[in-house]
Structures are given as C-alpha cells and as structure tokens.
Amino acid sequence: MSMNIAGLQKVSTIDYPGEISCIVFLHGCNFRCGFCYNPDLVLREACEGFSQEYFFDFLKKRKGKLDAVCITGGEPLITLDLEFVKKIKELGFKVKIDTNGSFPDKLKELIDNKLIDYIAMDIKSSREFYARAAGIPVDISKIERSIKLVHDFKNSEFRTTIVKRFHDEKVMRELGKWVKKICGEKSSQIFLQGFRKNEEGMIDMDFLKEQNVSEKYLEEMREVIKNYFCEVGVRC
Q1: Which pLDDT value is given to residue 202?
Q2: Counted domains in the chain
Q3: Does 74 sit behind a cis peptide bond, omega within 30 degrees of 0 on the bond before it?
Q4: Which residues are registered as beta bridge partners of 169?
C-alpha cells in the first residue's frame, strides 16, 4: 500500500501538547476496532485527499504560524514514507506520530533517525483482552516492544479509549500492571478518553447502541490505574 494523504486539518491547538499544529491523516489501518470513529480511513480502499505537493506548499506558507505536524490515521506507520517526514523536519516543523504500536521496527527507525519529536501510542486493553478491543488477532510482542520504545522516548504519552463493554476495573488494573512490568518502572503518563459514538457510522455498527462514557466513569478508571503511572489524565 502506497502512502495516501486522506485528509488535512489545517490547525489544531490540542493535538500536540503546547504547540500549534496541523494534522495529516494517512489512509489505512491494520486494526478493526469496532468503536473506531473514523471508519473511512480504515475500510475504504482509497480516500480522496491531498497530494504531497499540495501539502508541502501549504506547510511553506504556514512557517512561523504553525509549530508542528501531527501524523495520524488510520495507522500511519503502515505506509509512512521516511522521506516525507524528513521534508517536514527540513522545513523546521516538529513531528508528532500517533500509532497503535503494531510497527515497532518502523517506529524505532523514525526514532533512530531523529525524525520525530513526540509519540502518542494507543494501548487498547490489557494483554489478555487486546485482540477483543482491536477486533483482530494481535502480535502482542510487537505491542510490548512499542510500549518500551515509547516509554524510553520520554517525550510521549499513552492513551486508552475507554469503552464500557471492554474496560472495567479488572481489565484496567491488569493494563496498568502490564505496562509497568514492560517499562520496569512507572511510565510517565497515560490519558483516558471516553468512547463517543459516531452517528455517521462506525466500523461495527453495533457500537451505536453503546452508551457514551461519562466523566465519572473515566475518573473511576483513573483511580484504578493511578498507582501504575506517574500521571493519569482524563480527556472527555
């Protein structure tokens, strides 16, 4: 699969902590999380989007106005071209990568070549129930390698989308223990974000029956895992 820019959000003040960024959406994902809010990037064979030429013309005009580029998906590491990232860096922008952690070799290559400044990794569930949340069988060894890479990178965060049918106190406690064991210590930060159904469509339409997760429930889950991370944030 070749790299395809499926979408561009021209400005964001929340996706890269402390920076004003744009967001590049790359097409394709190897997971099938039923609660995914962006199924077009996952399920369609191709998405109408933007050429790289258009994107870099846009970036050149935003010098001094934007600080960073967030690269997300789908799962961007399926197709992300290192030369694409190098061009972004050469223009003086910071780069943030969102990933599901299933491509640790590609992630390490980006880190080793000093092409990324911030990493956000989704941790779907506890080790035992990972495949249930991801919607497909998962190579857990790759997830564990990525968790360690992200932890060691320091300028990074983990995040988990809390869905009531998947995440209860037992699952979250096991998630916390698992991550701490992989890292050998408390990892710096994880953010819990509540499931929100997308009335326009989801990968598994059964999730339209799911209740949106309340701030109260997120706070309850935060209490469960707060001893396994240095910081546990809540994003409603």
Answers
A1: 82
A2: 1
A3: yes
A4: none
Would you call 193 helix, strand, or coil by DSSP? Answer: strand
User: Domain range spanning residue 201?
Assistant: 5-235
CB 135 within 8 A of CB 34: yes
pLDDT of residue 47: 54
User: Looking at the chain, how many residues does it have?
Assistant: 236
Give the residue among 35, 37, 31, 30 at the shortest CA–CA distance from 164. 35
Domain CATH for 50: 3.20.20.70
157 DSSP β-pair partners: 120
Check: CB of residue 146 under 8 Å from CB of residue 121: yes
Block means of pLDDT (10 residues each) for the chain, length 236 residues? 87 97 93 84 61 95 97 94 97 98 98 98 98 97 98 96 97 98 95 91 87 96 97 92
Instruction: Please name the residue ranges forming H helices in 49-168.
Output: 52-61, 82-90, 104-112, 130-134, 140-153
Residues 6+ apart with CB under 8 A from 4: 26, 27, 28, 46, 47, 49, 79
Compute and round to an integer the Cα radius of gyration of the chain: 17
Amino acid at 42: V
Judged by DSSP in three states, 41 sits in helix
**Tokens 């996952």 label which residue?**
42
